[in-house]
Amino acid sequence: MALPDLDIDALRAFVTVADAGGFTAAADRLGRTQSAVSVKIKKLEETLGRRVFERTSRSLALTHDGELLLGYARRMLDLNDETVRRFTEPAAEGELRLGVAEYFLSDHLPQVLGRFAKLHPRLHIDVRVGLCAELVDGLEAGDLDLVISRRDAGETRGRAIWTEPLRWVAAPTLEIPTDGPLPFCALPAPCVFRNRGLAALGEAGRPWRVVYTSASVMGVQAAVRAGLGVAVLSESSVPDGARRLGPEDGLPELGTVEMAIFGETTRNRRLAEPLVGFILDSLAAMRPARPPLALASRDAA
Predict the structure, then answer these.
(1) Residue 92 pLDDT more than 60?
(2) How far apart are CA 12 and CA 300, in angstroms?
(3) Is the peptide bond before 190 cis (omega within 30 degrees of 0)?
(4) Whole-model pTM?
(5) What's the sign of the alpha-carbon dihedral 186, 188, 193, 196?
(6) Range from 66-70, 82-86, 208-212 carrying the lowest mean pLDDT
(7) What are the pLDDT digits (tens) for 147-201?
(8) CA torsion, points 278, 283, 285, 286, in degrees to nearest 10?
(9) C-alpha span between 282 and 80 (Å, rounded)
(10) Which neighbouring-strand residues pair with 167?
(11) How confident is the model at residue 298 (pLDDT cuts 50, 70, 90)?
(12) How high is the pLDDT of residue 231?
């Protein structure tokens, strides 16, 4: 007996509901009505003969079968999108020198660029990872074509692509002193993480001392894991196993950091547009899901 074909639209609706945390939020992302998304999920469940979501009036969660399907669905969507891009996007050919701030999605960007390379084998991306100031200098000197780096508040240069919170992080075993100076691990000045953290401590009247300085984010992450002190990192740079700290630990809020792409021009648009578009699509897919609990009743359709 022939097996049924899975509907790509239904799989995309399923993944989007899982990522967004609800039917209404998924409908907004997909540009569909909530009822249309519900119909897609129902058809998918009928095709598989399994329920993929447990739905009540107050909650939404993946079933065991839904969790199993999620991995397959992501792979099928990646292959579908890769195939469509390969045949529909104009072939880009040449070399693009890309500078990337070290802390920008440090665990994810290599995979993003790897997938891009498969789609555009004739576009060679020369990637330089470094600190923001170095990358901006390289762009202004003509050594780089594009830079993904921090954009300061009020700055209008570049195109904003990603905003994420800054976090105080420490090893789970580190005891935070209550009456002595806070041991601080940081990148060298000037650095937004260092400046934001020390300024916040100063405003809060909290004493501190720098115990470890590294020229790389990986060095700061290693110091945190070793329990040398507390550091300020972007959410996507928090190392596995680290403890996030906040007001409940006597540490002030740090706000967010905004990343932007600099260097887009009419001269490099032919090469830059495919890469920038792919990065933006990848970032959109990585947005954190809403918690599945306490959803409005309409989300549990």
Answers:
(1) no
(2) 18
(3) yes
(4) 0.60
(5) positive
(6) 82-86
(7) 988 887 677 788 888 888 899 999 999 998 888 899 999 988 878 889 899 999 9
(8) 150
(9) 14
(10) 233
(11) very low
(12) 95
Pairwise CA distance, residues 279 & 267, whole Å: 20
Query: Contact at 8 Å (CB) between 56 and 298?
Result: no
Single-letter amino acid code for the residue at 30: L
What angle is formed at CA 106 by the lines to CA 101 and CA 109, rounded to 5 degrees?
90
Helix ranges (DSSP H) in the chain = 8-20, 23-30, 34-48, 64-88, 109-119, 132-140, 192-204, 217-225, 269-285
Task: Name the phi and psi angles at 220, rounded to 5.
Answer: -65, -40
**pLDDT for 273:** 80
What lies within 8 Å, CB to CB, of 226 at 6+ separation is 171
Q: Buried b / exposed e across 110-146, counting CB within 10 Å, b at 16+?
A: eebbeebeebbeebebeeebbbbebbbebbeeeebbb
Query: Is the CB of residue 52 less than 8 Å from the CB of residue 66?
Result: yes
Return the exposure string of 273-292: e unless at least 16 CB atoms fall within 10 Å of the residue's CB, then b: ebbbebbeebeebeeeeeeb
Structure tokens of 117?
């390379």
Which CA distances in Å does 19 have to 24, 110, 209, 223, 279? Answer: 12, 22, 41, 33, 18
| Mean pLDDT, residues 136-140 taken together | 89
Mean residue pLDDT across the chain: 84
- The model's confidence at residue 120, banded by pLDDT at 50, 70 and 90, is confident
CA 87 to chain centre: 27
Q: Which residue has the tokens 């945190």?
A: 224
Name the residue type at position 199. Answer: A
The rounded Cα 148 to chain-centroid distance in angstroms is 13
